[in-house]
Design goal:
single chain; alpha+beta; 8 helices
Length: 318
Amino acid sequence: MIEVAGLTVHQDVVEHPLLGDAHIIEHAGEPITAMSAIDWDRPTRIPTVAEPRALPRGTGSMLINEIASRAQRAGVQALRYAGPYPTPALFNTLKRSFRTTATESIFSSDVLGRAMRLARDEVPVDFVPAPFTRQPMPYGSIDVRDGIERAVINGILFDQEPTVGSLARLVGIEAPIGSTASGAAAVLAFDTVVWTHVAELATDGSLVGDVRPIPALDSNVIGKQFPAELKQIFSEFVASSDAIPGPLCRDTERVLSERLITWRDLGWRAAAREGDGFALHVGWWTHLVPRGFETLVRALADAIAPVAVQLILDEVTR
């Protein structure tokens, strides 16, 4: 058995209706999902998890990192994903433990087609193993690769790269005069506009000062919905953006134009599903309107696109 972040993966191979040859994944002694079978001593493929939402938060990335570590130790030069769900969310998870020259749009270009036919062949994108090391901290943990790349602070993931559906960022702090050491700041930001500082970290990951609570936003826009005429224009813009894989353009436009989009105070989340519709953080409105309507719309499109894509894929597979 493979033990990773509270998950137990059985190396015995079973037959799965979606994945074919598969390993059962357990949590707290109970089976929760399955993953496509791999060679754990020398992984050459990135597996598919049948129900990734069944994995406890944060465990999926640790499972991927374990595979990257094993591949690196075995001298495997590159792995490819072989499964039906090459989603933007998966691409961003893989980038945490692998390096690739491909873009998200290339990786996800046939996401709907692969989901519809339950594809098991490889996506022609190479991922070079580059696993991180997770170090526990009193406030959570840090992931170290080229310096501190990510930090989990009170359950929130702060990443140097934008994370799907999140405002949390880890940004560098300039070193003091006469020192070469620099730390990092955990912030929440709307595009390039920093809303609030949650914490500052020293180079060893220790806290400088205290962790600050996320402030609430007071706005008369909270709870209001996008008017129908604005939704139609917005949905067309999102569907035609680079953030949407080509095969999903029409479905994205339809979903966003037909369903409710509501302004909410979402804390650290940029956008989220709300019932069968969507919620957008009201801070996009309060912080980006001064920068112009075009800047606001582009930022909203980037925020809601991955949420819309995941909703469509979930409904297709269901």
